[in-house]
Write a structure and sequence with these properties.
The longest helix has about 30 residues. The protein is an all-alpha fold and about 160 residues long.
Length: about 160
């Protein structure tokens, strides 16, 4: 039944591609609302930012979980696995760890830390940079090396 409504699902080897965009959107949205809350001094914006951060943690956990589950089925050469997949995994595990730490900190400080606000903001910025680097590695695997696709029978070797 699902394949009738969503014919592309029949070709999916895993659901990782369906969930990866949620943490990107939630975490970037959270950072934006925290920045606005800090600049404008509006606690309501910080409350929204905290809600988005919690959704970011949940969705990042789902993205990491589905990615780890799908890892063995990714059809790429060893060179691509070594240069992109392993780094993608490392970046995204660090992203998940950082967003968990920031969410715990924000929940305790409700909704935005008064003490250490600059450190919180710098850690959030680091999180966004690391997440972006990891997402770029994932995108390169998909678009440059056909990871998870079936358009070629031989894995493509890594090139810079």
């Amino acid at each position: 039944m699902l394949e009738i409504l969503l014919p592309g699902v029949a070709h999916l080897q895993n659901i990782h591609p369906l969930v990866v965009h949620f943490p990107i959107a939630f975490l970037m949205g959270s950072a934006l609302f925290y920045a606005l809350a800090w600049i404008l001094g509006k606690e309501g914006l910080a409350t929204t930012a905290l809600s988005l951060l919690i959704l970011g943690v949940i969705s990042a956990g789902a993205a990491v979980g589905t990615g780890l589950y799908a890892e063995d089925g990714v059809m790429v050469s060893f060179s691509v696995r070594e240069h992109l997949l392993d780094l993608h995994e490392d970046f995204m595990l660090v992203t998940l760890g950082l967003c968990v730490v920031l969410a715990i900190w924000a929940v305790i400080a409700r909704p935005f830390p008064k003490k250490g606000r600059r450190i919180f903001a710098l850690l959030f910025l680091a999180l966004l940079v690391i997440m972006t680097l990891g997402a770029d590695h994932g995108a390169r695997m998909v678009y440059d090396y056909n990871a998870g696709g079936n358009a070629c029978s031989q894995p493509i070797e890594f090139t810079k």
